[in-house]
Structures are given as C-alpha cells and as structure tokens.
Specification:
488 residues; alpha+beta; Regulator of G-protein Signalling 4, domain 2; Phosphorylase Kinase, domain 1; Transferase(Phosphotransferase), domain 1; five-stranded antiparallel beta sheet; 22 helices; 9 strands; phosphoprotein; ATP-binding
Length: 488
C-alpha cells in the first residue's frame, strides 16, 4: 500500500512538472501559472525605502551599467531621454551588435555606423571620438576585424563614465534601479515555490524541479539536509558554493536565483537544466556508439572554457570539472554546475593548496600535494574532452577496477594514448591540456584564455557569437543526440 502511494505521488509530481514545463516553454499561457497573491508581493517600494541602498551597493560604472542587465537597461533608457547623450547610447549599442553578427554582415553594419555616427554634420555625430580613430575605421572597415571599433567603443564608454553616469545617478531612472535592488534583497522562503519531481540525489540531499509562484518560472532547487551537512562536515562547502554562485554571472555557469533555509534544509534555487549531464550523453544516448563526434565535443569544450575563464577572472579555482558536472539546457547548450569544491583566492593570493576533486581527473601538482593555481582546472578539461571523444578516461577505462593509487601513478607518469577518433588538432589540444608540468600547460594566462581559444581545435568557433548567446549547433552529431534525449 505504501509503495502504491509513492508511485501515485511520483506520477502526480511528474504530471505537474510536465504541465509547468509547457507553460515555461511557451505552450501554455504563463499568466495561468502565476499566483496573484505572491505576484502582488513583488511590488516595488516607495523610493524613500530604497534610497538608503546608495550607501550599501557598489556604485561603480562597471558594476551597474555592464554587469547588471537591469542597471544597463535603465542607464540606456536614461541616455535615450537626454538628447546630448543619445549619440553615445546608439553607437554603444550598434558596436555591440557589430561584434556579434555574422562576418558577411559586418561590412554593411560598419558602413551604417560610419554614416550615422562618424560623419560630422549628421544628427548622431559622436564628437567625443578622436579624429584619428574615426579615420582608421573609415580606412579599414571593409576588412572584417574583431577590433575594428575597439578604440571607438573604449572612447564611448570613457565618455559615458563621466557626466552621463554621474547625472544618471541623480535621475529617476537610477531611483528605479534602487527600487529593483531593494526588491532583489527581500527575503524569500519555501512558501514562494511549488515543488515538482526529484531530478537527482546526492550525499547531502536532493535536487528537485520547482516553480516560482509569483512569476511561473521553473528552477532547480538543491535541498541540502542540515543534519547530513553537520555530520559529514559539509556546511563550509555549501556556504562557499552559495557565495560563489552569488558572485558569478555567466551564461556558461549555472546561476543562483534565490537562497533560503527551512528548519531541516538549506535550499539553493538555480537555473534548471533539462537536458541531462554530459556523462549521460556520452554513454547512454547511443550505447552502441558512445562518445561524441569532434565537432560536438569542440562545441561543448568552448562553452566550458568560457565558463572557467569567468570563474578564474573572479579568482575562483573550480577543482571538480567532469562530465557529470556539465549540464545541458533545452537547447543543448551547456553550463558548469556543482561548485561545492571550488575555492576562492584572496586579493593578493595566486595559489592554493588542498586535496580536492575526482580520481582520474586531478592534476599532477594537486596529487603531489603542491601548491597550485587555475591550471588544475585545465588538466580536468583535458580529461573531460578526451572522455567526450573516446568514451573513456585517458588514465582509466570505463568499468576498469583499479585502485586510486594506480590511477595516481598513471597521471603522474604515463602519457595518454590516442586512437584514430582523435584528429591531429584534437590530439594536440588534449596533449596541451594534459601536460604534466603546470607551467607548460595551456590555460588561463594574463587574465584570459586567449591563447587557449586561439588553438586550431577551436578554428570553427565564433567566440563573439558564443559569448553573446548566439552559438551555432555543431552538425548532425549534435542534432541526433538531442533528438534521442528529447531536448532540442
């Protein structure tokens, strides 16, 4: 009888989840899924309540007008309302468009920008731009270049940081920004969410699908049992994960939307990823032909690189990249997840120490108990890319029963072997990542991953489009896998 109740409960949860996904995907009226009572609680406060935030939040241009979408949107609305700032606002947006469109469309777009903003006497002429930078654009616009408008964009942002930004902070548009920040900071508890089926279970709890009652939007709720956390000394890792998730803002990393606690659990409400993890797709989507084609592996690897670059630019060492921790969304794009083992470096800190990770993925310097930096994450990327192609790890075959000390010995001493599934660029890429000397390993250098992105393995990746959220699906191998899983 008890088993029947559990089955019925599971069926009901699954049915509710499918119905909610329909509304989220646009097949049902979203208004029908919103709770009016909770919707009413999202009312913006009176400005007198939110103006005190001026003394509590980061008021730098980069923070408000670049990193925060609502701040940037309101700033641009303000610029549009002031005639003398409108040219700077328009060229700023048009240069961003130029940087993300297809190469074949860029010459025409460049001509449009020149005629609108770089010709004296025109309505939107940008007089704050230096004549020499304007001349360089006019002379070179027919050559498709990523940096064609780099000087113009830099000068535009410099202009906007000055009087326009200072005046924005005295406007009603900034008051509205403060109202949104006040609303963002209001506490939210479990009563705001509807729980659906369990998506997965772990050592400290489970992850279930949930729906925010006020908006109807779906999320994944990671529920961590407090007793288990205390017993297994997992509290610190959970707090670090929550703090890191709140800091990072990347389309390639699972985002934290809300966090709250109940009497029994700590709850992290995050981006829902309906496509499963990479491990499942490597081994289970086509069991007779496991692994990915190179174009698909490259597509996923590029997005992982973007996610890790963002972490490292925020002084965070991930330490646990593996196929299980890379999740797919409805469109088949990936995000890094599970930052429970990540560590933050201090302001003047360049390296850390400590044993963390998954056997078979940990870098040699970590296994030798040496201090290490971001380079350990690129070793794990090498293992992950290798596994995507070969459907086995470079140092341990899937299903092979071997002790961890033997895996450690192989990582420290043995080179990886490559079959015909690896092209020369792919092999060279994996070798560069699996380099045992961290000083020679390719990765995060001089504050970015430019060297890594320039590798021939990524020759077909358009990094501008990828970062703008406009990637191209990588061929039939990707389409077939997605159709079998039902997420594309």
């Amino acid at each position: 009888m008890q088993l029947e109740k559990i089955k019925i409960k599971t069926v009901v949860a699954n049915s509710a989840y499918i119905s909610a996904r329909g509304s989220f995907d646009g097949n049902t009226n979203v208004q029908m899924t919103r709770d009016k009572k909770f919707r009413a609680k999202l009312k913006l406060p009176h400005i007198t309540q939110s103006e005190t935030l001026k003394d509590k939040i980061d008021l730098e241009f980069e923070s408000i007008c670049v990193k925060q979408p609502i701040g940037k949107r309101l700033f641009q609305e303000y610029l549009e309302s002031v005639a003398e700032y409108k040219p700077a606002n328009e060229i700023w947006k048009d240069i961003e468009t130029y940087n993300t469109i297809e190469d074949e469309d860029r010459v025409q777009k460049a001509q449009n920008i020149i005629s609108k903003y770089l010709e004296s006497g025109t309505k939107l002429y940008c007089s704050f731009l230096e004549e020499k930078s304007i001349l360089r654009v006019k002379e070179d616009y027919q050559n498709v270049r990523d940096d064609l408008f780099a000087e113009s964009e830099e000068a535009t942002v410099k202009f906007l940081k000055d009087a326009p930004f200072e005046n924005y902070k005295e406007s009603m548009y900034f008051d509205r920004f403060l109202q949104w920040k006040w609303l963002e900071a209001q506490p939210i508890g479990e009563e705001w969410f509807l729980d659906f089926r369990v998506l997965g279970k772990g050592g400290f709890g489970e992850v279930s699908a949930c729906q925010m009652k006020a908006t109807g939007k779906l999320y994944a709720c990671k529920k961590l049992n407090k007793k288990r956390l205390k017993k297994r000394k997992g509290y610190e890792g959970t707090i670090v994960e929550k703090r890191i998730l709140a800091r990072v803002h990347s389309r390639f990393i699972v985002s934290l939307a809300y966090a709250f606690q109940t009497k029994e659990e700590l709850c992290l409400v995050m981006t829902i990823m309906n496509g499963g993890d990479l491990r499942y797709h490597i081994y289970n989507v086509d069991e007779n032909n496991p692994g990915f084609g190179e174009d698909r592996a490259c597509f996923y690897a590029a997005q992982i690189v973007c996610g890790m670059e963002h972490l490292h630019q925020n002084k965070i060492v991930y330490r646990d990249l593996k196929p299980e921790n890379v999740l797919l969304d409805n469109e088949g794009h990936v995000r890094i997840s599970d930052l429970g083992l990540a560590v933050e470096l201090g302001e003047n800190q360049t390296k850390t120490k400590g044993y963390a990770g998954t056997p078979g993925f940990m870098a040699p310097e970590l296994l030798k108990s040496e201090e290490y930096d971001y380079s350990v994450d690129y070793f794990t990327l090498g293992v992950t890319v290798y596994e995507m192609i070969a459907a086995k790890g470079p140092f341990r075959t899937r299903g092979e029963h071997v002790e961890n000390k033997e895996v450690k010995r192989r990582i420290l001493n043995d080179p990886a072997s490559y079959t015909e599934k690896f092209s020369e660029p792919c092999k060279a890429f994996c070798e560069a990542l699996l380099e045992k000397d961290p000083n020679k390993r390719v990765g995060f250098k001089n504050g970015n991953c430019d060297e890594l992105k320039a590798h021939s393995f990524f020759k077909d990746i358009n990094w501008r489009k990828l970062n703008a959220g406009k990637p191209v699906k990588p061929g039939k191998d990707w389409d077939d896998g997605q159709k079998k899983f039902g997420v594309a």
